[in-house]
Amino acid sequence: MILRLFRPVPAGRLFGIPLRVSPAVVLLALLVLLNAALAGAAAGSGHAPLVWAFLMLLVLAASLVLHE
Known about the structure:
Blueprint: E1 9-14, E2 17-21, H1 23-43, H2 48-67
Antiparallel strand pairs: 1-2
Helix pairs in contact: 1-2
């Protein structure tokens, strides 16, 4: 069961290049966003930490796609 987290899943094609995503990376991204949301709520700073975490994850994903 846990090995499925590390087995890449097809996510489509970009310019004819197949994209595959590991479910573990998706789970990690969701945990980062949850942590940012909870930290923002606890600090009373609203949605700013959640927005920054989302933007950083987008930059990370884009850099990985460009690198490959």
